[in-house]
């Protein structure tokens, strides 16, 4: 039985989450220098293209085909092949889970069923943005073709299995790890990959010597707004039903984000003397990241605490790259890895509404279990290590074969013009000249017919 | 004839322009410039990382004047551009051999 209300809600959430990737493109694009804005945005846009194709062909099947009861060893690690090419999805139904110990009856849960095709589309948008998030670490200097290949391979061997581990019936989910909307699957996963790629590619030419200021903070704020807006679909949508928990996730998303943005600004004002625009934007995203795993599990007071921890913690964490000496250009590690860990581990303390078999309350909540805190540490460690190691290996292989970095000359001239033959901003009228030709370059001299 | 070049604070451009017009100067060239003198630059902070921005936005005004008027024109610019604070800019003049009005081909002071 398909519920039209749930179907409509999930279609809407899917579109909201997809909007986050163009939002991320603006967020990242504004933070680069003007000469790399298009390449930065293109790395996000191309992940929409690559991951969508991989998802249809085999990605959805590898991530979400439980292949029977999910007890076989292989099926704990990776999904089956029943949904290759999305075959068999059209007529299938996503059956909402019967909540263990909750106040939802099997009848009520079944009343929230919606088409499996919608579930597949919804989950696709998560895979897309996870890949796009990684690109912030390698601004200004990556070969576009190498990034396209990396995004395809990484989605295949890292994202699809990890999504299966936690959400697709795999081993971490069976253990009872709590990850409501993707703190571990999306943010820790992407953050660890970002660290690996920053190490594989190395520092940008001139890092710490030349100023590499964000060229357009208005774009960063526009991107932040789109991310914030879309994130309601990401978090509240992850309930997979328009119900009480979706409402909780929605409110917690708003609360943690606002608190984290405020906390970041306060730290900046006290530490550096100025409350900055980039600080507000970064704090908001840090709060969104940290509340992602927790949004459907905690009370709003706990969302305030998580927001505070994320705002303060990530504000300090983005400085680590200067001490450690790696050029994670746009702070994917400091915001997404650190924010994701904060949210995941916080659940071990403040989770109040566990609902799947094996999940428990946090230790600060009455009836909480220490074992849950252990699981909340285990998840980030396992996923972080898996993603870091595989990303490093994939990155190294690409670097040794086709090369992952553009030449230094191309980097200094700007990746936009050298890779894409475009410039983001044509603000003058003197330097740009020439004739538009539909058939390639115009010859320097032309014979004039008599 | 002399070419007088003034590098001034951007917000003083309107005052300088008005003063020069009142003096009788009929044309000028204005361009955006960046640079520093004793003022040096300023500090910007992005995610806690401080950047020393050496070059400060300035406006460059270029005016051609007859030899006899040059000192007066300089005085007019200095008076109009002055705030008394560091970073007010510089004015200098150099001799000019020839000036030609492109439209008519007039040469010398006639072309000013």
From TrEMBL, chain A:
Short name of any one Pfam family annotated for the protein: Ammonium_transp
Main location: membrane
Domain Ammonium transporter AmtB-like, chain residue ranges per copy: 8-425
Cross-referenced InterPro entries: Ammonium/urea_transptr, Ammonium_transpt, Ammonium_transpt_CS, NH4_transpt_AmtB-like_dom
Protein localization: Cell membrane
Ion transport listed as a keyword: no
Presence of the UniProt keyword Transport in the record: yes
Entry's Gene Ontology cellular component terms: plasma membrane
Similarity section: Belongs to the ammonia transporter channel (TC 1.A.11.2) family.
UniProt-recorded name of the protein: Ammonium transporter
Organism: Nonomuraea endophytica
Automatic annotation (TrEMBL), chain B:
GO MF annotation list: ATP binding; enzyme regulator activity
Any one annotated GO CC term: cytosol
Source taxon at top rank: Bacteria
Modified residues (O-UMP-tyrosine): 51
Classification via InterPro entries: N-reg_PII (IPR002187), N-reg_PII-like_a/b (IPR011322), N-reg_PII/ATP_PRibTrfase_C (IPR015867), N-reg_PII_urydylation_site (IPR002332)
Pfam families from the UniProt entry: P-II
Entry keywords, A to Z: Nucleotide-binding, Phosphoprotein, Transcription, Transcription regulation
GO biological-process terms attached to the record: regulation of nitrogen utilization
PROSITE patterns recorded: PII_GLNB_DOM, PII_GLNB_UMP
Subunit-level organization: Homotrimer.
Name of the protein described by the UniProt record: Nitrogen regulatory protein P-II
Phylogenetic classification of the source organism: Bacteria, Bacillati, Actinomycetota, Actinomycetes, Streptosporangiales
